[in-house]
Amino acid sequence: MNRLELRELLATLDLAAGSEEAPLLQRMLELLDSGRPCFERSAFPAHFTGSALVLSADGARTLLHHHRKLDRWMQFGGHCEEDANILEVAHREALEESGIEGLNAVSALPFDLDIHEIPARPASGEPAHFHYDVRFLFIAPEAPRFTASEESLQLRWFDSEEWPALALSSGLRRLLEKWEKLRVSRKFLKPQTCQSSPTVE
After folding, report:
1. Per-residue pLDDT averaged across 160-169, rounded?
2. Residue 114 to residues 49, 121, 134, 160, 186: CA-CA distances in angstroms?
3. pLDDT tens digits for 111-142?
4. 82: three-class secondary structure by DSSP
5. 94 close to 138: Cβ distance less than 8 angstroms
6. Global pTM?
7. CA angle 144, 147, 152 (to 5 degrees)
C-alpha cells in the first residue's frame, strides 16, 4: 500500500453522520493531499501511526499492555517507519509488542481513527506533535502465548466488565466501546483467512 492507496482506503470509510471521527478523517485526508512527509517519526507537526486492538479468539476479551513510559493501559501500535501500509504497520507492532504469532485482521478496512497530541520531549529535541492513528482489529488464535516487550510493564486480557474501570484515553475508550457494541449486536466468526478477508458479518 502506498500513499495514494491509503488515501483511497480512508476515503471509502462510511462514517455515521455526526461521528466524532468524521473531522479526524478529513484532517487525515488533508495531510495525505498536502504531499508533506507523514510516515516518518521525524515528520512534524503530524505523522501517521498504526494501532491494533487484539481480540481473543471468541471476541469476548481484549489484550492491552501497560505502557512503561506512559504508565497506562493501551492498545498495541507505533510508528510507520516510512511504511504507508498502515495495516502491516499495525500487525507488525502487535506482533512485536505482544509476541503473539498468528494474528489475523478482522478486515482490511480501519475500524477506528484517532488524532492525539504528543507532548514535546526537550531532551531529544522532539517538538509537540500529533499522531494520526489508524486502528484495526486483530484476532488472536486459541490459547495464545504472549510476552511483554521492553515497552510494557505487563500484558493482560480484559473483558467488557473490567475495562470501564480503567483510566483509559478517550480514544481507546471509544475504540473499546465500538467493538463491544458490534460484538453484542452482530455475529462474531472465527478467522478463516489472514489479513484481507473480514470475519465480522
Report:
1. 91
2. 10, 21, 7, 21, 24
3. 999 999 988 988 888 899 999 999 999 999 99
4. coil
5. yes
6. 0.89
7. 130
Written as one letter, the residue type at 103 is L
Domains of the chain as residue ranges with CATH: 3-185 (3.90.79.10)
How many residues in the chain? 201
Question: Model confidence over 9-31: pLDDT tens digits?
Answer: 999 998 876 789 999 999 999 99
- Alpha-carbon distances, residue 85 vs 6, 8, 129, 142 (angstroms): 7, 12, 21, 27
Q: Which residue has the cell 466524532?
A: 20
**CB atoms inside a 10 Å sphere around CB 47:** 21
- The values of phi and psi at residue 132, to 5°, are -95, 95
Give the C-alpha distances (Å, rounded to integers) separating 56 from 88, 124, 134, 140, 153. 20, 37, 21, 5, 20
Q: Is 171 left (phi over 0), alpha (psi -120 to 50) or beta?
A: alpha
Strand bridging mode 129-139 / 46-55? parallel
